[in-house]
Amino acid sequence: MEPRLLAFVSLAFVLGCTEEPSSDRSGVDGGSLGVDGGAGADAGPVNGDDAGLVDGVDAGVAGGGCPPTGPFGTAAGDIAPDVMLLDCDDNPVSLHETLCEAEVGWVFEYAEWCPPCRSFARDDVENIWQAHRDQGLQALVVVSADASYDAPTAELCAEVKERYGLTMPVLYDPTGALQEGLDVASNAVDVVFSPGVRIEWKGRYDSAQVDDQISAVLE
Q: How far apart are CA 79 and CA 69, in angstroms?
């Protein structure tokens, strides 16, 4: 498979990550990305698994039950589209099914090539999870790229989980589906959700700010 370089924003230079060349990762291993309710979108298989953005959900009243119905969006206040990711054993995991009924959801997107990602994963992620898990937090770490900017693998997923002693689910995203679905960069992005997978906040890897945003949803 040819290397697929992931999208990155200019904030990376300010925050200490090496800037990454941009490219389109749609169609990895023959799969194309699609968005819930989007016209003509078709999520294709990746390595034999249904990883990608979920297609074909009927539009309804925003936030109506679990799994949520549309319309979907990517801004604060919107219901996030569903995204299919893979766990470290290559089992598909739905963002909607995992986070819909949680008191608060938190997704941290991790790229192996990004030093601040590694520092945040080492120093803060597990502590934030342990501080709020009994209050109803459901957290996900999503590995988006390896050290060479290539698509992540199940092996890297398992390595990241073990290296940092992470006890929440660790997933990987070989197609860039999360970036496409939530309109985020490939590294060090945090997204906090209220019940129904409603986006409350999207930001970077500041532990105090992430903790404050999670706490605000729980209040």
A: 8
Residue 185: its pLDDT value, please?
Answer: 87
CB 187 within 8 A of CB 145: yes
Q: Which segments of the chain are extended strands (E)?
A: 52-53, 83-87, 92-94, 104-111, 137-145, 170-172, 189-194, 198-203
Mean pLDDT, to the nearest integer, of 36-48? 31
Closest C-alpha to 48, from 28, 23, 33: 28
Q: What is the pTM of this model?
A: 0.76
- Three-state SS for 88? coil
- Token match 């549309």: residue? 70
Contact 63, 194 (CB under 8 A): no
Where exactly are the structural domains of the chain? 11-218
Q: What percent of the chain has pLDDT over 70?
A: 71
Query: What is the pLDDT, as a whole number, of residue 70?
Result: 85
Nearest 5°: the CA angle 184, 85, 152 is 75
CA dist 213 and 201 (Å) reads: 7
Distance CA 161, CA 108 (A): 13
Q: What are phi and psi of 172, to 5 degrees?
A: -135, 155
Q: Which of 37-46, 89-98, 103-112, 170-179 has the lowest mean pLDDT?
A: 37-46
- State the Cα–Cα distance between residues 76 and 147, nearest whole angstrom: 31
Architecture of domain 11-218: 3-Layer(aba) Sandwich (3.40)
> What spatial distance separates the first Cα and last Cα of the chain, rounded to whole Å?
46
